[in-house]
Amino acid sequence: MSDSDLMVEANSEDEPLENFVGTTDDAISVARISDGSGYLIISGENAGRKVNEIDTETLGEVTPIPDRDVALNGSTPLLLIHRPYRYWREIPSLLARIHAFAGKNLALGYIAKMSQFSEDAHNEFAGLCGAGAVRIIDPEGFYANGGDLRLGAMSKGGRARSPHLDAEEHDAGVVLQMQRDRGANLLLSSGSALIPADPDQSLQDVFSQGDSALAELLPGERLALNITVSETWLSNATLRDRLLNQLLDQEQFGTWYVRVQWHDVKSHTQPINSQLLQGYKQLCQLAVDENRALILPQTGLTGWLMLGFGATGFGTGISGSAQAFQEHQGGGGGGGEIERIFIPQILHTIERTSLAAISSNPSYSTCRCFYCHGQIGRPVWSHTLSNLHCVMAQARLAVSAGVAAGNRGGSQAEIRRIVRSAKAVANKTALTGISEPKHLQVWDQLI
Fold it and tell me: What is the enclosing helix (H) or strand (E) of 293?
């Protein structure tokens, strides 16, 4: 999309999306829900809405939505979208629209923070997200001990909605029941933060939490071992080896949910610490070797890259914090939100003012997705539409990797091709500052 297509003013607040997104985007079609309870409208005016009966001959039926276990078996990538605080009502239709083009080549789900919403709000959201095969309510157990993470203070309301964080004794049954009550179908252990100064004890604590949770599972339920670490645990060889060796010995956990807090990474950019990325790569390869499902819940494009090394799925979202578990910086905002747009051809989010530079490259093509269409002719720039476009683009990248894979871990050649193509385009484009995709050089070396 060129600057001439986007007649916008700077630093404008988003208005409600229904004020400017068209009510139709393509022909209406439906997908059968895996439990047989009905159909999900996946495109058109009512995308995301569940119906019990529908005329499939008139509307057309596409690939059924997979169930949880199929979504986690590694046959296709799993894309998890974080529920945002604002514009959360756009996520059900976003999931549905992704399923409309991805079909059997991508499994979908969502992650919601337990602390951020009431039980009723969680259940309302679960009922709307019919395209999500995997539903996760994250207990954020790392807030209970902190480790060496740099965290902002959780609000009083968040603490009230997460009483397990202040409990004197850990009760796995309580933590699991709270997730069940909020609609989760992939349960997490509490996930205390690992502490570099006391690695053996903190690892033992996390595994004990996992064992306690396994003992509380009901028939048909599935648990992911929840681990939260600072970047040090993957970039420091000694700590990394200790973590990987301990994971290797814990054969009882079939699914790993590993969140890593990145150090000094700006919003909408990727880490360039080669040791950190090597740590991710080794973690992924271990998961493949040991036949474990590995979810990297807050990684955005870096999580997509790790599909090539064996990650089962990754998490992203419509905000920078959903695409990266960043260190809390403190202080206030300031100059307003930067107008950005994700450019798939260079695997990077650039400032809107840099569009002219990238548009002149012959390899660039205007995005025609539903959300980019909503920007055309608007009097103001929508950060939300831009971020929804970013998720759609990441979903298409995941589909490309999954289609090429054929089997888990086999998508590395396609991801390598995409990365090297992006690097070639970026090298021929004059991009500077935060618009420069500095991560591509490190990625090229990694793959």
Answer: strand 293-296
Backbone angles phi, psi at 359, to 5 degrees: -65, -25
Nearest to 162 by CA among 185, 132, 142: 142
Q: Are strands 107-113 and 134-138 parallel, antiparallel or unpaired?
A: parallel
pLDDT digits (tens, 9 = 90+) for 266-300: 889 999 999 999 999 999 999 999 999 999 999 99
Alpha carbons 423 and 442: distance in angstroms, whole number: 10
Q: What angle do CA 297, 220, 95 make, to 5 degrees?
A: 40
What are 367-426's pLDDT values in tens digits? 988 899 888 878 888 999 999 999 999 999 999 988 865 544 457 889 999 999 999 999
Q: Which has the closest alpha carbon to 426: 415, 441, 414, 407? A: 441
> What is 255-284 written as a DSSP string?
EEEEEEEESS--TT-----HHHHHHHHHHH
- Residue with token string 């494009």: 301
CB proximity list for 392: less than 8 A, separation 6 or greater: 94, 97, 98, 369, 370, 371
Ranges in the chain, pLDDT < 70: 1-30, 33-37, 42-46, 52-62, 331-335, 404-410
Q: Strand 30-32: give its sheet, edge to edge.
A: 50-51, 39-41, 30-32, 61-62
Cβ–Cβ < 8 Å for 268, 438:
no
Do residues 256 and 425 touch, judged by C-beta distance below 8 A?
no
- Domain 30-326 matching CATH 3.30.420: the answer reads no
CA-wise closest residue to 68 among 173, 182, 183, 176 = 183
- Cα separations in angstroms, 367 against 105, 203, 391: 21, 45, 13
Instruction: Give residue for tokens 């004794």.
Output: 169
- Give dist(CA 435, CA 431) in Å, integer: 6
Beta pairing class for 61-62 and 78-82: unpaired
User: Cα–Cα distance between 43 and 26 in angstroms, integer?
Assistant: 6
- Strands 30-32, 39-41: pairing is antiparallel
Bridge partners (DSSP) listed for residue 325:
261
| β-bridge mates for residue 343, sequence order | 348
pTM of full prediction above 0.85? yes
End-to-end Cα spacing for the chain: 30
Domain with CATH 3.20.20 in the chain: 30-326
Q: So what's the pLDDT on residue 252?
A: 96
